[in-house]
Amino acid sequence: MESSQPASFDPTRITRPDPALLRYYILTTAVATLCILPLTLVLLLPSLFKYRTLRYKFDDEGVSMAWGMLFRREINLTYRRIQDIHVTRNLFQRWMGLATVAIQTASGSAGPEMSIEGILEVNDLRDFLYSKMRGARGEEEKPGEPGTVPDDEALRLLEEIRDGLAAIRSTSGGAGGPEGEVS
């Protein structure tokens, strides 16, 4: 009875795959690329349309972003609504010098309200947004007056009430009724 394997077969001599495996890899990659190529074009078209229609506008009140041809989408954010700013860069963005600036608000959504893409001066944009965000909240100092906040009507009204109450207390000698009423 003959063996089904040739007598010269020695599995201990196998250390590398056969060169036919490389040809197989090339062939399957080429077939996959040909099958996926139409899908790539379908996926690329929305990105191309977004790029062609994407517009940003930064003004004194806030930032707005608009894009779309058939379905136009616009996002308007005032600097006062901005809660946090994140800068992210994936491998390709770092290679190209790009980044994404994600702006988050207290809207309740898990993701950012607006993502600004395709900006080369990302650090300058982030610093600009932080300064506008803090300025909109009245946290910047006035020049020459460290530790003070910009003019605010509500703050001014509260200070007048405080000063008026202090004047009433000082003229009455601090005496008051049981509920703190001034006599």
Major pleated sheet: 3 strands, antiparallel
Overall CATH class of the domain at 55-137 = Mainly Beta
Radius of gyration: 34 Å
CATH topology of the domain at 55-137: PH-domain like
Task: Tally the helices.
Answer: 4
Structural class: alpha+beta
Count of DSSP E strands? Answer: 6
Strand percent estimate: 15-25%
- Quaternary form: single chain
How do the strands of the widest beta sheet line up side by side?
1-2-3
Provide an overview of this structure.
The protein is of the alpha+beta class and 183 residues long. Among the domains are: 18-51; 55-137, Roll (PH-domain like). It has helices at 19-53, 91-96, 122-136, 153-172; strands at 55-58, 62-67, 73-78, 82-88, 100-105, 114-117. Strands 1-2-3 form a 3-stranded antiparallel beta sheet. A hairpin with a 5-residue loop joins strand 2 (62-67) and strand 3. The protein is elongated, with a radius of gyration of 34 Å. The relative contact order is 0.07.
